[in-house]
């Protein structure tokens, strides 16, 4: 059995090494057009920022180490230029010598990855992209010169990481994002703290902004402004690398990626595809999606090796979980966000909470902004997002696992999570989300969302302390502190009441109290904190 | 409706406050024999150590704050001395005035907690216990005097926390534990690093040791040794506080706690019980168990309020998840451990791995020792344990959630967990556990456990580097580095081969390679690291 793998990073190399473990006798050839294989592409921004000091740390394996350990024939700077499915051969160009040769295969694994999307803007060729070690080398070389300012075009995960790291090097950094928020996998009120944190650390964040041209030394926006930019980094997204597959007549999917079945097999039974180039099946709808994440690339690479070795395997539909560090802040998300649910017309209910990362009486606790989306018909968890200084990745991982296990949002109330004061609370943030969802589901709680407040009917009652109210109030709110509400409820005008506190907890108590007194009351979900974040997002 | 709650911490107060939110008109009386309610009992060790600086931080609520916010009649230093079920009254002694009075109820909630187990040892009355704020006050007062040495009797979670905190104050601390390991919820090879870490920080750890008497200034062990002990802290476990329930004729369960049904109702339909005093149903077997953990106490308190308010509720069976900080180390566990599975004759398979807390190329990664136990018949996850400097609580929470969701151990391979270099790896430790389990399940991997190595048939082959082998080797092992194994396999004697590396990963590759060459080979599960930890545990 001879297996050729096209692409020597993540999915491709996972397939090759796993296949060797399953089959000591297979002939395995990895063809990589770049100069490196098995490098830490997620580490590239941190190498530029200096957090990862040694370039060698990025190179997890070399062709030599892979030959020694796995007897894999790894050829870097060898580009496959054509697949001949009829003869089961590939045509390879050795980029060092220029020589072209043929290689036959019994099974072919495509892991060509994705290429950066490059907009049609004059001067854009001056912009760097950051996909591989050679890209990082070029940027590092540029940074070694007299570079004082940088513009990062694109405020997604990589763009935000790049902006942070260039800022850590002391550059004057502007992040330019076409959308009115950074990190579009998050909803706007969840992304607002990320933009704030970038600004706190001196990164200029230009939202709703678009590059018009990229002359030497600057980036000019479509609104006429010019931003200083000795260095320009472009990260507005990637497109699946499908040219080889397309030219070979393999089916592409509706999203423009390589179409694969549940065993990652393409429309040619001898050819598999994994990683950013291959389409995934969405866990919620079963539809084709593109999910350029390392976890799935590695997982599917391993799975393809199993399939080639004759095992019964089946890829799970993808939920998509991602996390990003933004200076000392963490933002993470899993599943669908509210924007996407709304656009798809999928029924959902949102909850926002701001629990402590661990017990408040133990030093170092900070608030986590946590949002959970669920289907009100069956309480299925549709997605979650979290932002905070600590414990964010843990809570998103727990919810992602709950989704994989088919737990409902109410089941989160019953999770037994590890509690000691440095790690969590007896009622963990995830449990709290379950309590809130349960209350909404059985009608105990009624909430209004931050974006529904404008023009909502009713008297707005702030149940925080007078000091909190004085510091920052929602316009038009009457202030009656929760602990006085029982005695002073008669002061409230007739009709519907909208109560709110800082994060939603006292508001819930107030809503229950007023309901118990026969009043119609709803609680502002997530309290002032979520409202203010949402407002800051929409004002930006 | 008048509801009396006996016990004003955790479960009791959760029941009282939740009930108020559900019923504005109920009369709610909380009777607490101690001087405080709603205090942070899990924070007490950290108050003694000075990490929590202010005593007030421990007092989360006061009778006054609970009256103002929830209109709950909270009476501290009021001890219920008798329950009269026929008349639905309780007899209460006001410990301040000595006055005794009666209080009627429609529903009664028992949340009396547990009391420390005190062994019958001369002088033991000199030992402090640490269950409430008054205990902490007494110890703090003692520590304000000339206290230089302390003995902590009992190496469970609280004992370890107490030892750490007393050591942090600069005391000469000895931890005395009857078992041959600390933290008995962990298996010995997982607990060994905890004892090591305590010793590294200057705590003397005496395992297999028992106090014989506690004279002034010391603790004498049964082996005749005397340990300096200006202060003695006793934490060898707790017993459910059941005297009231028993005297009232309520059914106790097989473990000596108050028997309750799935709605936390006792054998008297008007009386509920929650917290450390009530028995729980074990998630694996359905048997009655005692689980003195805050998460369940709070959860069940809330559930009882729902039940009293007429809602359909049902407590989930308990998995038991716990975590402890030991200086800069974290140890956590969920579900059953190997000792318990073996003792119960439950079929299981163990896996040990030592993945990085996050991507190795990003600074600050450390190894996590992770153990997962599963049922080889259906791959049900039975339990997990983890020890390490970072990311331990996250992985145990994820596995606890997977257990709650009914995922198999192989399903862990497919979890989409949040990955960026500071948080994890593209193949997260939990994914790795899934890969290993999958390999064991389908026969790809074959392992031998650390405790099976002695006397196991076969040639032991260390596939680590010569430098690693020279530094620390298992007696009798031949050293052939993995990258030379393919070429040098012929050097190995005939017969069965037992391969091992440092943590199990290279060993797996070696086992696959040798199997591919037609040899019979097994891999030492968890590698040298697990073997050494197990050996250190059994040698102690």
> What is the number of helical segments of chain A per DSSP (H or I, 4+ residues)?
15
Largest sheet of chain A: 5 strands, parallel
Can you say what the CATH homologous superfamily of the largest domain in chain A is?
FAD/NAD(P)-binding domain
Give the chain pair forming the largest contact, with residue counts: A-B, 90 and 90 residues
Count of the separate structural domains of chain A: 4
Number of strands of chain A: 29
Q: Assign an overall shape of chain A.
A: globular
What does this protein structure show overall?
- Chain A is α/β, with parallel strands linked by helices and about 550 residues long.
- The first copy, chain A, folds into four domains: about 1-115 and about 240-310, FAD/NAD(P)-binding domain (3-Layer(bba) Sandwich), CATH 3.50.50; about 125-235, FAD/NAD(P)-binding domain; about 330-440, FAD/NAD(P)-binding domain, CATH 3.50.50.60; about 445-540, Rhodanese-like domain (Oxidized Rhodanese, domain 1, 3-Layer(aba) Sandwich), CATH 3.40.250.10.
- In chain A, about 30% of the residues lie in helices and about 25% in strands.
- The first copy, chain A, has 15 helices and 29 strands.
- In chain A, helix 1 links the parallel strand 1 (about 1-5) and strand 2 (about 25-30).
- In chain A, helix 1 (about 10-20) runs parallel beside helix 8 and helix 6 packs across helix 15.
- Chain A is globular.
- Chains A and B meet through helix 1, helix 3, helix 8, strand 20 and strand 21 of A and helix 1, helix 3, helix 8, strand 20 and strand 21 of B.
């Amino acid at each position: 059995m001879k297996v050729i793998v096209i692409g020597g990073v993540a999915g491709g190399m996972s397939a090759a090494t796993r296949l060797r473990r399953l089959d000591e006798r297979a002939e395995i050839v990895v063809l990589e057009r770049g100069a490196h294989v098995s490098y830490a592409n997620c580490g590239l921004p941190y190498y530029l920022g200096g957090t990862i000091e040694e370039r060698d740390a990025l190179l997890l394996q070399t062709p030599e180490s892979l030959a020694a350990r796995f007897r894999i024939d790894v050829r870097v700077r060898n580009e496959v230029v054509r697949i001949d499915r009829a003869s089961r051969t590939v045509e390879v160009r050795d980029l060092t010598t220029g020589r072209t040769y043929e290689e036959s295969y019994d099974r072919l694994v495509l892991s060509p990855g994705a290429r950066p999307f490059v907009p049609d803007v004059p001067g854009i060729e001056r912009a760097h992209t950051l996909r591989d070690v050679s890209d990082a080398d070029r940027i590092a070389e540029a940074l070694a010169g007299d570079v004082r300012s940088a513009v990062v075009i694109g405020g997604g995960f990589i763009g935000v990481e790049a902006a942070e790291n260039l800022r850590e090097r002391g550059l004057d950094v502007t992040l330019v994002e076409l959308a009115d928020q950074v990190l579009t996998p998050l909803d706007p009120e969840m992304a607002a703290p990320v933009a704030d944190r970038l600004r706190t650390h001196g990164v200029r964040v230009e939202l709703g902004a678009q590059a018009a041209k990229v002359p030497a030394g600057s980036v000019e926006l479509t609104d006429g402004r010019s931003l200083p930019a000795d260095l320009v980094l472009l990260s507005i997204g990637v497109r699946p690398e499908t040219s080889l597959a397309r030219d070979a007549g393999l089916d592409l999917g509706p999203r423009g990626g390589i179409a694969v079945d549940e065993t990652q097999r393409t429309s040619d039974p001898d050819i598999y595809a994994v990683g950013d180039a291959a389409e995934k099946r969405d866990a919620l709808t079963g539809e084709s999606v593109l999910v350029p994440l390392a976890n799935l690339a590695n997982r599917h690479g391993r799975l393809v090796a199993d399939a080639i070795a004759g095992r019964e395997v089946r890829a799970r539909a993808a939920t998509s979980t991602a996390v990003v560090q933004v200076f000392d802040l963490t933002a993470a998300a899993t599943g669908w966000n509210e924007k996407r649910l709304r656009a798809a017309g999928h029924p959902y209910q949102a909850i926002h909470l701001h629990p402590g990362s661990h017990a408040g009486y133990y030093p170092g606790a900070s608030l986590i902004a946590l949002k959970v989306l669920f289907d009100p018909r069956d309480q299925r968890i549709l997605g979650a997002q979290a932002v905070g200084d600590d414990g964010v990745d843990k809570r998103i991982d727990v919810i992602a696992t709950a989704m994989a296990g088919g737990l409902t949002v109410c089941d989160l109330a019953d999770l037994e999570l590890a509690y000691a004061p440095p790690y969590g609370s007896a009622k963990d943030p995830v449990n709290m989300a379950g309590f809130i969802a349960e209350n909404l589901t059985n009608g105990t709680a009624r909430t209004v969302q931050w974006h529904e407040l404008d023009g909502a009917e009713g008297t707005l009652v702030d149940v925080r302390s007078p000091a909190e109210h004085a510091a920052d109030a929602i316009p038009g709110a009457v202030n009656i502190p929760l602990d006085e509400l029982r005695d002073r409820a008669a002061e409230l005008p007739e009709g519907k009441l909208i109560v709110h506190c800082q994060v939603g907890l006292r508001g819930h108590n107030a809503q229950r109290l007023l309901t118990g007194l026969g009043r119609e009351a709803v609680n502002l979900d997530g309290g002032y904190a979520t409202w203010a974040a949402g407002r800051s997002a929409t004002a930006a």
